[in-house]
Amino acid sequence: MTTPQSNFLATAREQQALTVQKLVAILALFMTLVLVVPVLLILGVLAVEGWPAMTAGFFTEFPRNSMRAGGIFPALVGTLWLVAGSLLLAVPLGVAAAIYLNEYARDNWLTRTIQTAIVNLAGVPSIVHALFGVGAFVHFMKFGASILAASCTLAVMTLPVVIVATRESLQSVPVSFRAACWSMGATRWQTIWHVVLPNSGSGILTGIILAVCRCVGETAPIMFTGAAVMISVLPESVFDKTMVLSLHLYNITTQISGVPRELPFAVALALILVVLALNSVAIGFRMYLRRRKKW
Amino acid sequence: MTVPQGNRATHALDHRDSAWYADFAARVLVFAGGVSAIVFLLGILAFIATEGIDFALNRLDWADFFGSSAWRPTAKPPTYGALALIVGTGTVTALAMIVSVPFSLGAAVYIGEFAKGRRREWLKVLIELLAAVPSVVWGFIGLQVLSPWIVDIFQPESGVGINALNAGLILGLMSAPIMTTIAEDALKSVPESYREAAEALGATRWQVVWRVVLPHARPGLSAAVLLGIGRAFGETMAVLMASGHSIRIPESVFDPVRTITATIAAELGETANGSDHYQALFVLGVLLFLITFAVNFTADLIVRGRRKSR
Lengths: 295, 310
Fold this sequence. Notes:
The structure holds two protein chains of two kinds.
Chain A: H1 12-50, H2 56-60, E1 63-64, E2 69-70, H3 73-104, H4 109-123, H5 126-140, H6 147-171, H7 175-183, H8 188-217, H9 220-223, H10 245-255, H11 262-292
Antiparallel strand pairs in A: 1-2
Helix pairs in contact in A: 1-11, 3-6, 3-8, 4-6, 5-6, 6-8, 7-8, 8-11, 10-11
Chain B: H1 5-12, H2 18-58, H3 62-67, E1 71-72, E2 79-80, H4 83-114, H5 117-132, H6 135-154, H7 164-188, H8 192-200, H9 205-216, H10 218-234, H11 237-242, H12 260-267, H13 276-309
Antiparallel strand pairs in B: 1-2
């Protein structure tokens, strides 16, 4: 007869299952690491190779010697122009779309069509956005290749990012807040303006930061809509062409020969640092919000 | 006939003061914003289709377009055979999926089912940062870092490291974050009670995942894979820089290839507005749009169908 304790000992089969579980956990961890280690590796390689070229003048000087020397100042300024331009267009439109979807829309075919359109708009390849920008903004609207046309193209592209992030933050405002406001006799818009939006502001900001990120990194949509290879003056209006950081990296890497090796590495490092810093801020913001949430 | 007094009183609440007009204006504006996504999506298709339609209907030989790999738009007479470009796009996408599907799903299982607390948060943040790396930086990495590694490790006969394998690896890493994130969402949407029921029967964590969670999350996982395919298919800058850019049907993964996206990006700047070549690139654009639309739409249907069945 067996002792009572032996009933609680794992059988060989159970022990095997436990071993399998341990092995699978290790394998899955390994697979995760294979995906995340390259980010760190890339950062490391870019930092080591690009650091020597990252002097103070790198950020404040114009390129010299057909972009084989000098800094990235005009490209930085151009990137800022494009980010500002596309945000001015995409944020009001995206926030409006999110407000409509979350505060007004009923669950009908139109709402479902809008949601499908957002998902598919987010999936349109960037080069197709470029073709659209050339057809619609450069030629049809006669903006020419300019900051305006490039900003419009980028705005269409970042619209889904803004909509999705804003909608998420609107959703997180409890219905009871709205009900309390309505019961005081406020209109729907007064409720949205005075109660819903103030309570979702930081979430919307997170979405805006992510949109900025997208704008900074995109290359294909601006190649033919407003970015120039090399311009020796800063843009003065939205109808000028401009240099852009992302395209500058492409050009000095593939289009121009005789560029010193560390220069493109430094540009890539600058680009990735801007993007990662913005993303880290957005992520930190979101974590802070989640922890602080009062309701 | 007079309107009953009581009715008029309730209407008095509805008088048109400035707040009413503000509310009405806001409703109209916000609705316009709401439909903008549809307008833009249709606008994109309409614009790229009209730019290329004259050439597509009157002068393009469709049998050649899909059947020949002679893409020589600047030759005399020009030929527009897109087969090699389509095969090239398919090759790098397939390579990317071979790399990223198993690893992304593995990562999703680890992050969603095994990792706990702080480690889980960190891995999620890192995956998100992976998604944030700009495509031109990926292309640069492929060209300057991965290419010499491929030459060192595999020593291809051509002695060149920018080829289908390079672009496939880069694209795999690029499409991994979206697949991991969506797949993890799919795992998360499996009710906790299912896991508890299985655990109560004495199943190990892995048995729960393998027998209960994964089968239940299958539609969401396939949607994740489809979205990853869509991402890889439409990627431009990275393949433009890392694929080798040679128009031919590849025989091995070490052959350079050229994709549809890279062709548009490389040639659009050199064409005259409205020329046949310019229009041919827009035809390629329509092809890209339709394929990615089909892929994303299917993924959306799968996700939505699952939500409805709950």
